[in-house]
Amino acid sequence: MEIKDSIVDLPVQDPENEEFSSIDLTWTKFGSTDQHVDEVALIPYERVDAFINGECNNIECPTRFHIERGRKRVPGSLKECKDDEYLLYRLYWCSFGPENYGEGGSILPSRRYRLNTRNRAARPQSMRGCTCHFIVKRLYARPSLALLIYNDRRHVNKSGFVCHGPLDRDAIGPGAKKIPYIGNEIQQQTMSLLYLGIPEENVLQTHIEGIQRYCGSNAKVNSLASQYVQKLEMIIKRSTHELDLDDQASIRMWVERNRKSVFFYQDSSETDPFILGIQTEWQLQQMIRFGHQSLLAAHSSFGISKLKYPLYTLLAFDSRQHPLPVAWIITRTSAKRDVSKWMKSLSDRVRAVEPSWMVSGFIIDDAAVEVDPIRDVFRCPVLFCLWRIRRSWLRNVVKKCSNIEVQREIFKRLGKIMYSIWDGSDSVVSLEEFIQDFIDQTAFMQYFKESWVPKIDMWLATMKNLPLASQEASGAIEAYHVKLKTKLYDEMHLGSIQRVDWLVHKLTTEIHSSYWLDRYADESGSFQTVKEEYISSTSWHRALQIPDDAVILDDKDHLFAKVVSQEDSDHRHLVWNPGSEFALCSCSWSIQGNLCKHIIKVNMVCQKKHSDYHPSMSFQSFREILLKFWRKVVDDSIALDQSVAWTKQMHDTIQRLVELSNSSNIGSVVSSLPVKWVSKKGRTFAGKRAAYTLALPPSKESVYQRKHRKRKRLSRLRGGSA
């Protein structure tokens, strides 16, 4: 076959099938020298996912491909480029490699750890040292095309033997053709169902349906599948969190056994506090997928009074904007030095897989959180979410005030204190008036003075200094909080709640399985009941199911609103203080301290149809930021020039993003971007450098240094010859 040295003349292949693999493409040998030749093919960039899915569904070796390495260039960063230069570079590797956790074990330099196993792995989902991998290059000169470079198409190990799948005898034992293939996805699905308490009959039926994708249906397969499910259920029932009677020793043993799920560990000592950062491989992939150029949120200080160490959760927002835990940090310290340690370790782990990964914003939910480590590590804006203070106030208002009308008025006045940072009123005066007006509510006032008066200024200052997150974000973080509380604070486990190993076991088994199954059900379309519960798990999505005409507003005084119940049309929920985040609803979900769907729906209608209501706090915060850009200090001053420059920069960025999202030909948009000059070291030249360059004449000092070095070399040569 002819070896081509350019990809300009390669045809663009676009198979008609919804999914296609390497056998559906015509491969061309490409290389600059005889020693280095690759098989390449050109496809539309939008069909890359279809190609990857087709490769995963290989009948002989079904697998998954993960991103082993990745690089990215900014459009306009190259002055000149070759025809095969990349805009986006990704190395996809079969998930049964590259490490080999069988005999001996091997590891790539990019990985920091490996499992020391003496015996050859007995399960096909273990790392088998598979060498199958390919590269996807989004071309710099033609961004609408992708260059596929297949380095090794065979699913074999370094010895050349098939290392996984139905044909791998060592992986699945004797009788390879009769033993059903159980991949990582099927095993995770089965374990998730068992952890969630699904009856064994239903789990077995789902498990058999999964393995029938790889082998036919017969009595032998069904019998072995039944044995496999029973064995997994027995393992789960017998598994225990107590690896040692001593909690600290038990955690050390767990960390040693699960190094791939630990991104940071610091044992407690006289100088260092205890910190344990947990992130599974699946969570890492979700963080890369949903966190890139999107938002991350912190759910902090969970269980600060009940657990031995509070739980800090890092959340990403998935395709439905639902909260998805992508990392758990168990620690009591909030010092800047300690937070920077685990944040940097987590960021390094993500960028080791995807170097171009970046975050658009980071949401915090506590005014006491240190924001400097977030800005230093993630290099993104920090937003502030008020779900925690709203929930705490509402729960205590309902708990400590028996009169419903007093509850409504107290909660409304608390909201006015928060809104005071924009309406020009003095927050100190508003706070003093609030305390005087409700001095007879002794139980609530005692709680408020002890818990919030000392730190209310800190919260108001944080609201002024940071942009505020939306109600959708508040509802999402609160939904995660409610689910976490339900799973962990079970009466069956109250005796173990002070052990860290119990918390780790609970997070990595039941809670992890729950979120994995939610995502799997949503993406695959299976488990309709799980999918429906997952979709309606946040108040925001439940509010979207309520039609606008079900909301009846009090147009006269704007004191309340009514929402017609979707289950019973004769029943109406009463929402007081409509249009505000500090509204109070008569439904049971709101009385428990939660942000209910009726309040969110009423606020949607108020903002959409009526201008008499105050805009949301997040919108007022956003408007204040824009006004700061626009506001000028003195006419014809440098401050005005700076404001104009910032505003122009933001306008150009937004305009460019709009063009990219609306354009059907991304190449035309990229070609119109200005050339971005970078350092000399980072440039790529298509041809040879010029033989001459313009430069300043050398100084006398530099000439003297060169002559001095020449004399030293000559003296050494003479001394050596003598």
Structure write-up:
The protein is an alpha+beta fold and 722 residues long. The chain contains 24 helices and 18 strands. The protein has a 7-stranded mixed sheet with strand order 1-2-3-7-6-5-4. Strand 2 and strand 3 form a beta hairpin. It is globular, with a radius of gyration of 31 Å. About 7% of the residues have low confidence. InterPro entries: Znf_SWIM. It comes from Acorus calamus (Sweet flag). Pfam families: SWIM. Keywords: Metal-binding, Zinc, Zinc-finger. This is SWIM-type domain-containing protein.
Key words describing this protein structure:
single chain, 722 residues, alpha+beta, seven-stranded mixed sheet, 43% helix
User: What is the share of helical residues?
Assistant: 40-55%
The low-confidence runs, each spanning 5 or more residues with pLDDT under 50, are 103-125, 171-177, 678-697
N-C termini distance: 59 Å
Largest β sheet strand count, sense and barrel closure: 7 strands, mixed
Which percent band covers the strand fraction? 5-15%
Q: Strand order within the widest sheet?
A: 1-2-3-7-6-5-4
What's the count of strands? 18
Cα Rg = 31 Å
The secondary structure category is: alpha+beta
Number of helices: 24
What do the pLDDT scores average to? 81
Shape: globular
